[in-house]
């Protein structure tokens, strides 16, 4: 599909009937990383996932702001033409979903946010230089998919498996689908801007899933739940940032319990 500012976005249809369920991946991810969850989510509606701009098979074109990328998600729902969606987002995708729910409540029936923060400004001891250093240390090209898994899979093997789906093979080896410079620009906004105002505007049913080893500041997702009327906060024991990949059974049980209670 083409966005209103002319950027091509790759949208993946996973099947299912009924109201749309839109899946939004995290930074450096892609739509197809949701495939294991789509096997059961298709019982709850028509499941779509989108490669965010600069990710997967979508065009690498800014602006790289949260507002623009949330607007992209809104346009996916509008072009699907099937009414308000259940929006499920991980990390960056959770932030985009939350801002979408705040700005376009007509398009969001319910919201699931996985391990996300709306304010990273100095709260975690990280800064943009840290992000540049981390991305700059990624050893591209990778000689094999096993090397991708090894580079990203410690201490959480599920992250290595996840990232092995987010590369493409070229003549000299495997490269990340997302350009490092683009990822740094996206992260730069998180180091400078907070989205607490959007939190206060969310009115749809909301599930907040937090990893035990979360990337969010301590207490942050509890505070999100306090500010969103009726929000349900669940901390999943034994998990890292990729809750849906690291604890798929617990993730499914929690999300399906939430979906079963929707009006």
TrEMBL record:
<keyword id="KW-0378">Hydrolase</keyword>
<feature type="domain" description="AB hydrolase-1">
    <location>
        <begin position="19"/>
        <end position="244"/>
    </location>
</feature>
<dbReference type="InterPro" id="IPR029058">
    <property type="entry name" value="AB_hydrolase_fold"/>
</dbReference>
<dbReference type="GO" id="GO:0016787">
    <property type="term" value="F:hydrolase activity"/>
</dbReference>
<dbReference type="Pfam" id="PF00561">
    <property type="entry name" value="Abhydrolase_1"/>
</dbReference>
<dbReference type="InterPro" id="IPR000073">
    <property type="entry name" value="AB_hydrolase_1"/>
</dbReference>
<dbReference type="InterPro" id="IPR050228">
    <property type="entry name" value="Carboxylesterase_BioH"/>
</dbReference>
<protein>
    <submittedName>
        <fullName>Alpha/beta hydrolase</fullName>
    </submittedName>
</protein>
């Amino acid at each position: 599909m083409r966005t209103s500012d002319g950027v091509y976005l790759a949208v993946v249809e996973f099947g299912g009937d009924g109201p749309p369920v839109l899946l939004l991946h995290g930074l450096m991810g892609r739509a197809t990383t949701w495939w294991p969850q789509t096997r059961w989510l298709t019982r709850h509606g028509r499941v779509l996932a989108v490669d965010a701009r600069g990710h997967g098979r979508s065009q690498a074109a800014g602006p790289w702001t949260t507002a623009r990328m949330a607007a992209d998600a809104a346009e996916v729902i509008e072009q699907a033409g099937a009414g308000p969606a259940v929006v499920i987002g991980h990390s960056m995708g959770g932030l985009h979903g939350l801002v979408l729910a705040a700005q376009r409540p007509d398009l969001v029936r319910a919201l699931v946010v996985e391990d996300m923060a709306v304010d990273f400004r100095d709260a975690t001891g990280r800064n943009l230089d840290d992000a540049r250093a981390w991305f700059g240390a990624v050893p591209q090209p990778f000689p094999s998919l096993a090397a991708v898994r090894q580079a990203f899979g410690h201490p959480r093997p599920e992250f290595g498996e996840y990232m092995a789906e987010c590369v493409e093979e070229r003549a000299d080896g495997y490269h990340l689908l997302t350009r490092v410079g683009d990822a740094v620009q996206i992260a730069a906004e998180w180091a400078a801007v907070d989205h607490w105002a959007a939190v206060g505007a969310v009115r749809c049913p909301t599930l907040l899933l937090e990893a035990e080893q979360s990337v969010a500041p301590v207490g942050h997702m509890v505070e999100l739940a306090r500010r969103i009327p009726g929000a349900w906060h669940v901390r999943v024991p034994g998990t890292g940032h990729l809750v849906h990949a690291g604890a798929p059974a617990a993730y499914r049980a929690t999300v399906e319990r939430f979906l079963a209670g929707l009006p």
